[in-house]
Amino acid sequence: MKIATYNIWNSEKGMPERENQIINEINALDSDVIVLQEVKNEEFNENLLKSTSYKHYSFAQHEGRVVVAEPWKDREGLAVYSKYPITYTKYIEYALIVLVEQMGSSILFVNVHLPWDSVIVKEECIVNIIKEISTIQSDYRFILGDFNCSDTSSVHQFLKGDRSLNGAEVTPYWTDLAYVAEEFLGIKRELTLDLSTNPRWKGQSLTDVSTRVDCIFIHDCFPKPYPKLKDLLYFGKEVDEKSGMCASDHYGVFIDIQMPFEKL
């Protein structure tokens, strides 16, 4: 199963050429499931779908404190595109939850775009997300997207089962697949918010550093058979001559994972 996450950057910079770049990146991956953050609005989402081969999708505009904190996100949303049927969808703050059915198995995907400017809200949201999906039956589970925090953050530590948050814990733990790729496939972890190389930040005086904010986590599935990670890559790095930009100010993350039911 091929899965990807991509923050496509809701900005007019580099448009309309950059929209074609985004479409090309999505089509080149040919993922079974891809989740997108910063989808400008429903119209933009429809334009992307028309230029790709996905028959199943879910799009949800942000609601609640997301829009209160950042009013310009009023029409922006999260999207999930799938080659396989989506049987359930629900939006909660900063996350779009879907169930995908493939070969008789249900796979839960949680597309997140956590806030960049409040660790308290990030922590509240990830705890709420875990509580919400604990009520949904599925065979396998992925949380992926733009977490807007680093490997050492409380959110990452919480998901990995190394700490509690707000009196909550995850049982069992989640695994960041970038670490699996590094240990078992020799694929080095890369920075997905690249402030030194991505043209979006060129010429700007920055007081921040690059980091890996875009991730794919898988939930421990014991006693079910474990999937096997076959490949992981970071995409969206090419600079277009016309736009002078990469397709986004983030790089995306793609995995090829052998799900147990695919061996049938």
UniProtKB/TrEMBL annotation:
Transmembrane segments: none
Listed GO CC annotations: membrane
Endonuclease/exonuclease/phosphatase domain: residues covered: 4-218
Alphabetized UniProt keyword annotations: Endonuclease, Exonuclease, Hydrolase, Nuclease
SUPFAM superfamilies documented for this protein: DNase I-like
Top-level taxon of origin: Bacteria
Classification via Gene3D superfamilies: Endonuclease/exonuclease/phosphatase
GO BP annotation list: GPI anchor biosynthetic process
Annotated InterPro entries: Endo/exonu/phosph_ase_sf, Endo/exonuclease/phosphatase, GPI-anchor_lipid_remodeler
GO molecular function: endonuclease activity; exonuclease activity
Cross-referenced Pfam families: Exo_endo_phos
The name this protein goes by in its record: Endonuclease/exonuclease/phosphatase family protein
Native source organism of the sequence: Alkalicella caledoniensis
